[in-house]
Structures are given as structure tokens and as C-alpha cells.
Amino acid sequence: MLNAPVSLRATASRSMRVIAGLSLVAVLAACGSNVKLDDVPVVDRTGTGVAGGAGSGAGGQSGAVDPRGVSGVSVGGTGAEQPNAMSRIVYFDYDSFEVKGEFAAVLEANAKYLNANRTRRVNLEGHTDERGGREYNLALGQKRAEAVRRSLALLGVPETQMEAVSFGEEKPAQTGFDEAAFSKNRRVELTYR
Description:
Elements: H1 3-31, E1 42-44, E2 49-51, E3 89-91, H2 104-116, E4 122-127, H3 134-154, E5 162-168, H4 179-185, E6 187-192
Parallel strand pairs: 4-5
Antiparallel strand pairs: 1-2, 3-6, 4-6
């Protein structure tokens, strides 16, 4: 009778290990994917048909895109007339998205312009310097743009007139690896469209 509980515990322990092993197998199987990344169809929107993925194409080519059919990316607001009478840049301290008091006049002038011109829209383009990872800088640029958006909203600018976007470190205003260049790149530009 004394051996029965030990045997029962040993059986329970083995059962738990088997269940844990099966659970691990199930989790690993769920993480797998049967999507074939090599054979993704590409739709040609020019009306000339459908191109296959890798290994297909005319003459056995590798499915590369013809660069003559690719158009450039258009950023809204670049062709619109920008108001020249006021500053449209807010600068930030290193690793910060706090709008400094010295830019209150810039924000007030832009808010006054937007409130007087309700049909105008503005992109609030957040930028960072080159320090930090790409994802971190995109997030920081977005936080900076959102901080300017909130400031303008407090000054009466409707949300429908503003769009906050981040470019991170991708569009530096000044090249260089010194504090002078870094300080010019930590900014939000107000681009009217």
C-alpha cells in the first residue's frame, strides 16, 4: 500500500511531461506557415496582364519589375503654395517630443492662418536626427508631430485640417555628424496643402 502513491505520482508526472511535450509541438506547429514567399503573384495594373512571381516572366526572367513602368511617390502638399510670411518649423531637444515655449509664436501664427483659411490643410511632418534605430526614430518623429498637432488643436485648429506624419531620420534638413546638424534635423515642419 505504501508503494501505490509513489507509483501514482510517477504516472502523473509522466503524463504531465507528455502533455507538456504535446503542447510544445502544437505551439511550434501553429507558428509555422505554409505561405510560399518565393511564388507571390504580382498584378500588373497597366492592363497588360499578370506577371508571375520568382522564376516566371518573359523569356524565363526572374519576375523583376520594369523600372519604366514605375512612377515616383507623391507627397501631398509639395506643390501647394506655402505661406512665406511665417515660420513653419518647430525644433526639439535631443530625444524629446516636448514643444518648447520659444515656439509658441510660431504655433500661434500658424493656428491663426489655419483658422482664417478653413479650406487649407497642413501636414505636420516629424523628423529626428540620425542617432537611434529606424523604428525608434519613426516613433519619435510621430510623437513630435502629434505634440504639434495637439498644440494647434488647443489654439482652435480643427483636427480635420491637420495630419501628423513621421519621416524619422529619412529626410535630414542638414547633413553632418555634429550637434549643429543634429539640432536642425530634430524638427516638425508644417507643410500646407
